[in-house]
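Example (one chain per record):
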Amino acid sequence: MKTVRISLNSIDKVKSFVNDLVRFTDVDFDLVSGRYVIDAKSIMGIFSLDLSKPIDLNIHADANRMDEILSVLKPYIIGA
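Predicted structure:
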């Protein structure tokens, strides 16, 4: 598992983020905001979070897939 900080500060960014994640059908992604943990592939779940602040994204993937996943998620990662 790897954790990165992401920013989803617009509706369009949330939509494209979910579309990017659903391509990885064999990988689980969790968004963590405070005490809430939601499935990052759930657009309704994402909109239940406070999107004005950065959110932690937990990526549950094998190490050999991590580079591919991080390159797709680069536009959302803070400090990438």
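Caption: The chain has a mean pLDDT of 95.
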